[in-house]
Write a structure and sequence with these properties.
The protein is of the alpha/beta class. It contains 7 helices and 8 strands. Strands 1, 2, 3, 4, 5, 6, 7 and 8 form an 8-stranded mixed β-sheet that branches. Helix 3 packs across helix 7.
Length: 223
C-alpha cells in the first residue's frame, strides 16, 4: 500500500472550556502542558504522528485566532498544512474543510482525524492500532471510529453500541456500530456500561477522504 496516501488531520480548534480556568479561550488546553510531560498536547500529538505518516502529510485545522500558537509550537509545520477556520464550528465543519483540502491534493487520500488534546499512555499500541485502521479502510469503504472499553459510567463521553455486544468487543476486531449516544446523564451512563454493549466513542476517525465526502454530501449537505 502507498503510505504517501496516508494523512493525519490534527483537530485543534476547541476552546477547552471544560478545563477552565487552567484552559482559557486565549490559550486553550491543546496549547498547554497540562499533563506535565514537557510537551504541550498539540506538540505531543504532532510528534506521535511523525512516526506514523510522512511529515508533509500532517495537517492541523484550527481557528484563525490560534494561528500564532500553532506556528510557535510546531514551527516546522508547512504553511499549506495549517488550515485556518474564521471561527470555531466544532468537529464536523473542521473535518469537511480538511476532507476537501485533501481531495484537491490527492484524490486517493485517506486520513486519521485526531483530537489535539489526548493523553496516550501506550504509544506503541496506539501506533499499531492506527496502522491496522489504515489497512482496514484501504480495503473497505467504511467510516471507522475508535472505541474504548469503558471503565466507569462517564457523562462527558459519547458511547457507541456495537453489534454483537460483549462477546464481539472481546474479539478485538472491527465491529459494526448499531447506535450512538452522546454524553448521557449518569443514570443512563450506568445502564450503557452495565449492558456490556457500549464503548466510549474516542472521537478518533479513520476513513478515505472520498468515502467521507460521499457521506457528508448525502447526510450533511448544509455543512
Amino acid at each position: 500500500m502507498n503510505n504517501n496516501n496516508r494523512y493525519c488531520i490534527i483537530m485543534a480548534g476547541g476552546t477547552g472550556s471544560r478545563l477552565w480556568p487552567v484552559s482559557r479561550a486565549a490559550k486553550p488546553k491543546q496549547f498547554l502542558d497540562v499533563a506535565e510531560t514537557g510537551k504541550t498536547f498539540i506538540r505531543q500529538t504532532y510528534d506521535w504522528f511523525l512516526k506514523i505518516v510522512p511529515q508533509e502529510n500532517i495537517l492541523v485545522v484550527t481557528a484563525n485566532k490560534y494561528r500564532d500558537l500553532v506556528k510557535e509550537q510546531i514551527p516546522e509545520l508547512a504553511e499549506g498544512n495549517l488550515l485556518l477556520e474564521p471561527y470555531s464550528r466544532n468537529t464536523a465543519p473542521a473535518l469537511v474543510y480538511a476532507t476537501y483540502t485533501l481531495l484537491q491534493r490527492n484524490p486517493d487520500a485517506y486520513f486519521v482525524a485526531m483530537p489535539s488534546d489526548y493523553i496516550i499512555e501506550n504509544e506503541e499500541m496506539f501506533a499499531h492500532t492506527i496502522y491496522n485502521a489504515f489497512e482496514y479502510v484501504e480495503k473497505n469503504d467504511v467510516l471507522l471510529t475508535f472505541g474504548v472499553v469503558p471503565t466507569r459510567p462517564e457523562t462527558n463521553f459519547g458511547y457507541a453500541q456495537v453489534v454483537g455486544g460483549r462477546n464481539a468487543i472481546q474479539s478485538n476486531t472491527p465491529l459494526k456500530v448499531k447506535t450512538f449516544t452522546e454524553k448521557p446523564d449518569m443514570d443512563l451512563a450506568r445502564i450503557l456500561v452495565n449492558s456490556g454493549e457500549f464503548l466510549w466513542n474516542a472521537g478518533i476517525f479513520v476513513w478515505k477522504a472520498a468515502t467521507v465526502r460521499e457521506e457528508l454530501e448525502k447526510h450533511l449537505p448544509q455543512v
